[in-house]
Specification:
alpha/beta, seven-stranded mixed β-sheet, about 800 residues, eight-stranded mixed β-sheet, single chain, 28 strands, globular
Length: about 800
């Protein structure tokens, strides 16, 4: 029955269709990954795909600017920043005559499907072109440049957009292509600056891009724990100069040796007066006398290789764009492929453009609170979180609470754990609670390694990898009596556990022991933090993104090492236990040819087929292969998830020897085991912990009758991301979703990405597109919501 409800893309044919792909406006990392996905998916379904070089200018000029793309023409493109097909500002396309020439060039090549990668200006231009299309064809017929038959054959122009912009300034999508990579560049610079700033006790003012949108400034300030941030959407109130200087001075008095201030290039005050980085510097020097320096990042933010997130986002969007074009009918409006939570969606292009324009209008009319809401939930949540975490209230302003909350890390270290602890501690203190840090997980808990942790104790934690609290894999069951005793001694009223599968098992054990120990009848929340991303109840875990970037960076270097040499295949092994997330998604980000994982059984025939497939590809102009095996095979890279967990017999060494033997005379083979370097990178992402503290407070106050007593199922929960939302789920209810033997969820969303990786590596496969095809509408602010602002 389930099979009948699914829709497979094999039913969609591109035969006889031609697709043009172009990049327009400012360049952004990840554009090449989107172009690659469009080209390969288009060719895969039987369509012709054309590069349109230099954006709309190439479309207007025609000639060699519009060339048919081949499968090999997008090889080695995935890891390259910018856009290899070029982008240009085009005045000609803004004129009717220019669009008429562009229409002629497209009709001559049979192109009636356009995939446009750019910002709101580029997408608006594409929609205007679509609306004028029939009129333009009529003019071409009347002038004798095309025949009536050609006009009828190409009567409809279909447009699908993908937003490529480092500013993340487009409404309707949580993230635009290039934003994550730009944030990586900023954080890399901040990390480098912090060391010199600490040495000389300096204040640094960093100016980042964002003429009309402060997303980069806001999120980078959040990620690095900046002392102050200035953005266009929320100008500081009058008197901000004194407030900022007071905060910087207070920070120094608490022992900090540096201050970081981040300024968006379009920052203004409430009266519309620009606030430049040099203005801020002069203010700090004049009022505080601090040694202050200015760093303007400029186009560094646009450069460099795309992050793993941007490569995956662009690849998913590129494939979705081709599906949208195949399904389009003459009446289908131009759409844009967007990201909502963890799901790709299609939205009407002009609805998104109009909402984006409304943001600027609200800012121009000084309706700043409305502008923030119009930016979307992601922007608003980030702004609220920054306010909570960066602006410490004086003790007299804090609400009073007699409740104690303990925080601990459990399981293997994961990048982002420290940022999560910092967030939880500061939000908890802001709500008036007393926070306690537990060292060394449940084992440290049983030994009484517990102490109060204050606001300043977590300063500078965001960028540090590993676990500063200390973490162990020890489960609580054998220490349950001592843990209960420590809960009583320190009067712990709530428990926050940040960790991996051991944290999940630990929460189950604590809940099971409530019948014997009343001290354990308190609200408990677990936040998933593991590079393996193997926790039931959550699509993503803290640390997994950083591990993916470590894998992607390593694969890029390994592939580059073979540049200029003979044809070569690399076998790479990643971490992951029995969970193939890192191998699969890392393979998609690195352009792997295969990824061998436990969840998808394989035998010697599959391996032989892969070797033969790779051999055929190597006989073309493609010269490197990548095979990932988890715990993973990946240039023609094969990613291998930890091979001993894929299969007892098909180990990394076995696959290496097979590829080496069968590839003789065509390619040679190398292997690499990535190991624990995947855990040790800095963290770039973390969770939204105001929601978590709200949950804890709710259960504390509901269950408070003289003392906290919470023993219901929903008082021991996991906070996870499910598709589009953060949700709390009782851990007891997640047991049925868990394969405890192999420590993985029974159903894993990312398995749907595996056919995508295979398609982009030229394997014939089946791809479920049941979630695709529905054009949604952008969620707009209702009138009562706006009036309540």
């Amino acid at each position: 029955i389930m099979q009948d409800t699914k829709k497979f893309f094999e039913n969609l044919s591109g035969a006889g269709k031609s697709i043009g792909v172009l990049t327009s406006g400012g360049d952004a990392q990840g554009m090449n990954a989107a172009v690659r996905a469009v080209v390969r998916m288009g060719i895969y379904v039987g369509a012709k795909v054309y590069f349109i070089h230099e954006g709309y200018q190439g479309m207007v000029d025609g000639g060699d600017n519009i060339k048919e793309a081949s499968w090999e023409s997008v090889s080695s493109m995935l890891q390259v920043g910018g856009t290899v097909i070029g982008s240009a500002r085009c005045k000609d396309f803004r004129t009717h005559e220019g669009r008429l020439r562009a229409a002629l060039n497209l009709v001559q090549r049979g192109i009636t499907n356009l995939c446009v990668i750019g910002g709101d200006g580029s997408l608006t231009g594409a929609n205007l072109f679509r609306e004028e299309w029939s009129g333009l064809l009529d003019e071409l017929v009347q002038s004798g440049q095309i025949s009536e038959e050609a006009a009828q054959t190409h009567s409809a122009l279909h447009i699908v957009g993908m937003v490529g912009s480092i500013d993340n300034d487009f409404c309707g999508t949580d993230m635009t292509i290039g934003t994550d990579s730009a944030l990586h560049r900023i954080i890399e610079v901040v990390d480098a600056i912090m060391t010199t700033a600490q040495s000389h006790q300096r204040t640094f003012v960093l100016e980042v891009m964002g003429r009309h949108c402060g997303y980069l400034a806001l999120v980078s300030a959040l990620a690095c724990g900046a002392d102050w941030v200035l953005i266009p959407e929320m100008p500081p109130k009058d008197g901000w100069e004194e407030q900022m200087c007071h905060k910087l001075s207070e920070s120094r008095l608490r022992g900090s040796r540096l201050n970081i201030i981040i300024v968006a290039e379009g920052a203004t005050d409430r009266h519309g007066n620009p606030i430049s980085s040099n203005t801020v510097k002069d203010l700090v020097v004049r009022c505080l006398g601090f040694d202050t320096r200015v760093t303007i990042l400029g186009h560094v933010q646009r450069g460099g290789t795309p992050s793993a997130f941007d490569r995956i986002l662009a690849s998913r969007m590129g494939v979705e764009a081709v599906l949208a074009l195949l399904e389009a009918s003459p009446g289908t409006p131009a759409c844009v492929v967007s990201l909502c939570g963890n799901q790709a969606v299609r939205l009407p292009l002009m609805e998104c453009v109009q909402m984006t324009q409304e943001v600027q209008k609200a800012m121009d009319e000084k309706r700043f609170e409305e502008a923030v809401k119009l930016r979307g939930r992601s922007f608003e949540n980030n702004l609220n979180t920054y306010k909570l975490l960066s602006h410490r209230k004086i003790d007299a302003e804090l609400p009073r609470s007699s409740f104690n909350v303990a925080v601990l890390n459990v399981g293997a270290p994961a990048a982002g754990m420290n940022a999560a602890v910092r967030s939880a501690v500061r939000v908890g203190i802001t709500e008036g609670h007393t926070l306690f840090a537990v060292n060394d997980g449940f084992e440290g808990f049983s030994k009484g390694q517990i102490k109060e942790i204050k606001w300043g104790d977590v300063g500078g934690w965001t960028g540090q990898g590993g676990s500063l609290l200390g973490t162990k894999r020890t489960l609580p069951a054998k220490h349950i009596d001592k843990i209960a005793e420590q809960m009583r001694i320190h009067n712990i009223n709530a428990l926050l556990v940040i960790g991996g599968f051991e944290a999940y098992l630990g929460l189950l054990e604590l809940q099971a022991a409530r019948s014997k120990h009343a001290e354990l009848c308190v609200p408990m929340v677990m936040v998933p933090a593991t590079v393996s991303n193997n926790i039931p109840g959550s699509d993503l875990s803290i640390g997994a993104d950083t591990a993916l970037n470590a894998i992607t960076d390593t694969c890029d270097r390994i592939k580059q090492s073979a540049s200029g040499t003979k044809r070569r295949v690399f076998i790479i092994e990643t971490m992951g236990g029995y969970c193939g997330y890192l191998a699969t998604v890392g393979g998609l980000a690195a352009g792997a040819d295969a990824a061998y994982i436990y969840e998808e059984p394989f035998d010697i025939r599959d391996l032989q087929s892969n070797v033969e497939h790779l051999t055929e590809k190597m006989k073309t102009s493609i010269q490197r292969g990548l095979v990932l095996r988890y715990d993973l095979a990946l240039s023609h890279t094969a990613l291998i998830h930890w091979i001993h967990n894929c299969s007892e017999n098909y180990t990394t060494d076995f696959i290496y020897q097979l590829y080496s033997e069968e590839g003789k005379g065509v390619f040679d083979c190398r292997k690499n085991v990535l190991g624990h370097m995947q855990q040790c990178y800095y963290a770039y992402i973390f969770g939204h912990f105001a929601l978590l503290v709200d949950f804890v407070q709710y259960h504390i106050f509901v269950c408070f009758v003289g003392r906290v007593f919470a023993n219901t199922e929903d008082s021991a929960c996991l906070l996870g991301m499910r598709r589009r939302a953060l949700v709390f789920q009782p851990v007891i209810q997640l047991k049925d979703e868990t394969d405890f033997v192999h420590r993985i969820p029974k159903e894993q969303w990312w398995l749907r990405l595996r056919p995508l990786m295979k398609i982009l590596a030229k394997y014939k496969t089946s791809y479920d597109v049941s979630d695709s095809g529905q054009l949604e509408h952008i969620v707009r602010l209702r009138a009562k919501d706006i009036s309540a602002i």
